[in-house]
Amino acid sequence: MQAALLFLLISFLIIMGILISMLYVVRQQSVAIVERFGRYQKIATSGIHIRLPFGIDKIAARIQLRLLQSEIVVETKTKDNVFVMMNVATQYRVNEQNVTDAYYKLMRPEAQIKSYIEDALRSSVPKLTLDELFEKKDEIALEVQHQVAEEMTTYGYIIVKTLITKVEPDAEVKQSMNEINAAQRKRVAAQELAEADKIKIVTAAEAEAEKDRLHGVGIAQQRKAIVDGLAESIAELKEANVGMSEEQIMSILLTNQYLDTLNTFAVKGNQTLFLPNNPNGVDDIRTQILSALKTDK
């Protein structure tokens, strides 16, 4: 009785072990390639599955369907004979409709992608100068992506995106480029400073010219006011019948104007003034003023 129970227990455990070995799970965003006696049998998607025991059905590989990224560094030469190091990032994934080709046709997909990218870059970059390479790196990346995608489609892979993340020229070339750029910026800065100085000088000259013009206008208006005042004074004295000629009236008014000017000169704090040393000096000044007026007429 006990032997029978022991046999049943062992049989149960063996059967449970076989059943458990027949079950397998495939995770999300991946597939499993199942082979039977070494030959492709089927592709198992995510979830729980059953296979034949005792090695009849075997999981040959589990293929990731998620997006993968490969980063490589390629050294090449530009049209102007400058060696550059280019960092290239390629995003790719397995085509869900062509998983068998991705597994059976290609052993090392990342190495194959690298070879295609290197070949594409070394055929494109030598056609461009270093400056053109920096300007058109996105266009080159797109061209490389198309070339590599066309080749990798045969092996069941989809190239999603190819990016040139860095272009690094030789250290000496890089230093020379920085020096050229710095010199160009200094030249532009010097031109801007010179232009600013020119504007300051022109503005100052224009301001000085306007100042002189306004000063001249002020003097002219002042003299006109003086002449108008003298004319009015002469007219008033004539109307008053003071018994003097026009020349005598003018002489008196000019003398008063002269004395008022001396008074203004003293009020403004001036301490030294050279005047004629005899009473006839005033008459001389008056005579000179009248002569000047006659000359102006």
Automatic annotation (TrEMBL):
Checking InterPro entries in the record gives: Band7/mec-2_domain, Band_7, Band_7/SPFH_dom_sf
- Pfam families annotated for this entry? Band_7
Record's keyword terms, sorted = Membrane, Transmembrane, Transmembrane helix
SMART domains per the UniProt record, alphabetical: PHB (SM00244)
**Residues covered by the Band domain:** 21-181
Instruction: Write out the coiled-coil annotation as residue ranges.
Output: none
Q: Domain of life here?
A: Bacteria
Per its record, how is this protein called by name? SPFH domain-containing protein
